[in-house]
Amino acid sequence: MKFLLTLRNLRFKFRFFTPFSESDILYTVEEFKEDQMYKISTLNKISPVGLARLNDKYEISKDVDQAVGILLRSQNLHEMEFSNELLGIARAGAGVNNIPLDRCAENGIVVFNTPGANANAVKELVIAGMLIGARNLNYAMNWAAELSENVSKEVEKGKGRFAGSEIMGKTLGVIGLGSIGVLVANAAVNLGMNVVGYDPFFGVKSALSLSSCITVTDDLNVLLGQSDFVTMHMPATDKTAKMVNKKLFAKMKEGTILLNFSRDKLVDEEDLLSAIETGKVAKYISDFPNDNTVGKDNIVLIPHLGASTKEAEDNCATMAVLQLMDYIENGNITNSVNFPSCNLGVIPAGKQRISILAKSDAETSSDEIVNLLKEASIKILNMSVQSNNHHKSILIDIENDNLTQNEFDSIISHKNIVKVRLLKG
User: What's the pLDDT at 1?
Assistant: First the structure.
């Protein structure tokens, strides 16, 4: 019996083997009705500018179990159980340490973030942090706020204790030359600073955006030994946790001002306090207050304001919504942190697209799937296969508007397949 499988047609349920679990995963192709809505759940306050980009096929739902997509900012999902309905999670921001990426991948849930959408907001706060540290502005402003009598006289008498230094001519070391790091580096050059950058994964996109006045080194010790200020712009992962520790502090110039607008987990805070005590680190400016750093001398804490501007929130929400919609409707993956990017554009009208998420093992052969389709006389119009170290993303546009159940079952039961969807243009 032939049938048409699309997200906008009849409902079928299949069970297929996945290597990630001993039990089968329930795969559902949704029934399409003219008034059917894709349910999207928002777990934090999401900018209405971004939500307005949802078209009339979507509705905001409080029922996470029925949602095909989740939009969030900092909500912790590590203890959340995910339903079989869930296709994607979009983080309106860059950091994704609040999302269980591996577990999502095991369940075929694509996780997106929005790199660069809040980059300008963070850049501006980093520059502000440098100025606060160099000019002792936090201490000076707190002192001035306490004045009550003979203010002008007291100001002239006491201002000398807050004398600082200018940043022009000083050297800034930028660890991590992604979207934010490049903007910070370029802004510092425009302020008359010398800038040294370090990024073991320095790419073409960053290179094209980076000022030619900036020195890029492949030796972190060189950067640390030259820099009056050091700012970090890399993700918090198991590999980067506590990477700024006593070994790196020992390589820094005496009196370095350290800026952290990435994540507190990057710094070994016990080693940091020791470095501050010895004077190796003059000040630590961080956007991430915690129990270990609050109330400590020479530590300036900002209450996680990096992306807290209207412009950044609007940009992040818009980017998250558009990426999530494109995946739900077209299977395209852009800025995912657990599956490789894969894009064939909008599905051609009247055509179908097979979206496949798989493990990136050698046994997961896209050629076998292609041969299977050819044997079924299914014409392939276009195809994209993208891989990383762990997973594959496969998109296949096909001419045929129908498949037999056996043909579809053959695809979804293929070894190491995580999830298959059939979409219609």
Answer: 26
Residue 110, token pair as written in the block? 């694509």
Spans of all domains in the chain: 37-118+309-338, 119-301
Nearest to 424 by CA among 349, 371, 319: 349
Reported as a single tens digit per residue, the pLDDT across 373-400 is 777 778 889 999 999 989 999 999 988 6
Under the phi-then-psi rule, with left for phi > 0, alpha for psi from -120 to 50, and beta for the rest, what region is 181?
alpha
Cα dihedral value 382, 87, 69, 405, nearest 10: 80
Burial classification of residue 219, based on how many CB atoms lie within 10 Å of its CB (0-12 exposed, 13-18 middle, 19 or more buried): exposed
User: What average pLDDT does the structure give for the chain?
Assistant: 88
Q: What is the mean pLDDT of residues 75-102?
A: 95
pLDDT reading at 330 higher than 50: yes
Domains 37-118+309-338 and 119-301 share a fold: yes
Pick the closest to residue 25 from 423, 336, 419 (CA basis).
419
**Opening angle at CA 261, ends 260 and 263, nearest 5:** 80
- Tell which residue, 302, 266, 307, 268, has the closest CA to residue 287: 302
Q: Which CATH superfamily is domain 37-118+309-338 in?
A: NAD(P)-binding Rossmann-like Domain (3.40.50.720)
Q: 12: exposed, middle or buried (C-beta count within 10 Å: 0-12, 13-18, 19+)?
A: middle
Q: Of the CATH numbers 3.40.50.720, 3.90.660.10, 3.30.980.10, 3.30.70.330, which one belongs to the domain with range 119-301? A: 3.40.50.720
For 256, the enclosing helix (H) or strand (E) is strand 256-260
418 touches 357 (CB < 8 A): yes
**Predicted TM-score of the model (pTM):** 0.78
To which H or E segment does residue 328 belong? helix 310-330
pLDDT of residue 33: 41
